[in-house]
Design brief:
Length: 85
């Protein structure tokens, strides 16, 4: 398999999981704001783990993010700030 084909296959996979992860994160954050666990301006740390037994892959990516604007506007966009060591 050529490098371009591998890159295209990985890109398709990442797009699929990225969309699902964003939807789930937004759902959980809205719930946390609604029940008072979050105010909408806190720093948050989250992790994503990608695994594949067949190729021996186990990668965990940690990120610390903050809301880029108050959630009162109904917007729950997060802005990556720095990787957590």
């Amino acid at each position: 398999m050529k490098d371009e084909a591998i890159a295209a296959a990985v890109e398709r996979f990442v797009k699929k999981i990225s969309f699902s992860a964003q939807q789930e994160l937004e759902r959980v954050l809205r719930s946390a704001i609604a029940d008072g666990r979050l105010q909408g301006h806190e720093s948050l740390t989250a992790a994503v783990t990608v695994t594949s037994e067949k190729v021996g892959l186990m990668a965990t990516i940690l990120a610390r993010s903050i809301f880029d604007r108050p959630c009162a506007s109904g917007v729950l966009r997060l802005t990556p700030r720095q990787a957590v060591p």
